[in-house]
Amino acid sequence: MPTKRKHEDENDTSSRYHPNADQAASFGIVLRDHYPPEMSNARCDAYTNGTLEKPIETLERAYTETAQRREEITPNAAVVHWFKTDLRIHDNRALQAAYDLAREAKVPLITLYILSPEDLTAHLISPARVDLILRTLAQLQRDLSELDIPLYIETQSNRSSIPARIVGLCQEWGANNLFANIEYEVDELRREASLVRLGAENGIAFETKHDTCVVPPGSLASQTGKQYAVYTHWFRAWVTFLDRNPDVLDLGEEMGSNPSDARRLFPSLFDCPVPEAPDGKRLDEETASRMREMYPAGEHEGQRRLETFLEAKAKAYDEERNFVAGESTSVLSPYFTSGLLSTRTAVVQARKANGSRIAGGEVGYISWISEVAWRDFYRHVLVHWPFICMNKCFKPAYTNLDWSYNEDHFTAWAAGRTGYPIVDAAMRQLNHIGWMHNRARMIVSSFLSKDLLIDWRRGERYFMEHLVDGDFASNHGGWGFGSSTGVDPQPYFRIFNPLRQSERFDPDGEYIRKWVEELRDVESNAVHAPYERGAASVAQRNGYPQPIVKHDEARDRALKRYKEASGAGK
Q1: Which of 128, 420, 528, 564 has minimal CB crowding within 10 Å?
Q2: Hey, what domains does the chain have and what are their CATH numbers?
């Protein structure tokens, strides 16, 4: 007899603790103001084996159970699009659907954005990313205004009230149809399901679109029907799916002006100010000026950067992408994360540059498309194993690893004072510009979780609180990779040697000298390990610290702990 599927009870806190839960919580890993105690590994297994309903299934069930009521709803005085992490006009699935319905019904299109300080705090959104979002909202508002489309913005202090508030606004505007693009995190999927039902009860049809991913989650499975947990297999299926379903890469039509006279019917909606950043999410003036210069706002800048990269750097991307010095990558992640540029547009334009091919052709283009596809992959993982949104790793057993919570070590890592130049350069880059090269992210995550054996979730949180491109799925996936707690973990050989990584991917020490000023006078390859290669006097004189751990000893310790956590050491 098949096991009966259980719906999630958000108030059920039974059997959720693991031995380190209280200690982990004391370091802010589980935000008790917003989330219940950490779940047990048994509940993770229930999600995996299908006995506990996944949030995406909760949303699908809400659609199924309200289908008849929603089908009876017809357009009224307006159609509404709700912007979230899709802050652009071009290639926006839900916005296009809202526009098409408004044009068909000959009523105004209204767009909406809700700023939720609680969401920003609960999801650890960095001040740098908040700054980019708010600057982009101002640009988006101007762009929409040129099309006679209003962008109404308001702040909601209580995030749980957002569904009811949106329904209230739709009723106020006489809108029976609401559109939005799906966000795949647990909180957001449950909120969308709630809004589907609440809307249907109040005569409002809420329709969501798959837009964030090039290939929607659930579209790819192995021959046995299982979801892929190894990227190489998943990517082959991703490419095959795109070859067989070319319409997935359709970018849609250019939107025209508002189908009806919104300025006459809703004049006050055009005068809505963009709010300031909430408390705790504001940049100081010097940092804000630097961020404006480094990351100009809006979809126009995202498109410009994409075109420049494909024209000038993409062909050499496969050869150059791992070198941390220079500018060999696209630095488009801030624009992807907040939806200023769609990954679909990026893949379409890269494919066009590669002679309309996703496989074959110039290896640089293919390599870059593969890197963009990682964003899809990590969202697919998030949807199918939703407990990773709940402070758990893909391999729940490793939550029970005997992690260290050495505060001095964590502080040294965060400040770039570990005595390992490549690690310190990367962390200082992050702290200064809110961004870090992907190779550097792998190095520092491995160092924190393997060399220092500090709970990887502290690093995951630190990244989210500082990255301008802090995307939960990609950040969690990256930390799962670096800490060997995620998909395809490989803990027994994926322990990066910082010195070898430094010599291989910053061979001239250019990256280190740029970010670690104490070592700018160190010559030749001594810059990679000044205390081992005859540059101790310079390092000491300039106040650069000695290594806080010995890598070889740390490696042996890490291997032992991982084997114990997995049961292999018993």
Answers
A1: 564
A2: 1-50 (no CATH), 58-212 (3.40.50.620), 213-255+300-383 (1.25.40.80), 396-566 (1.10.579.10)
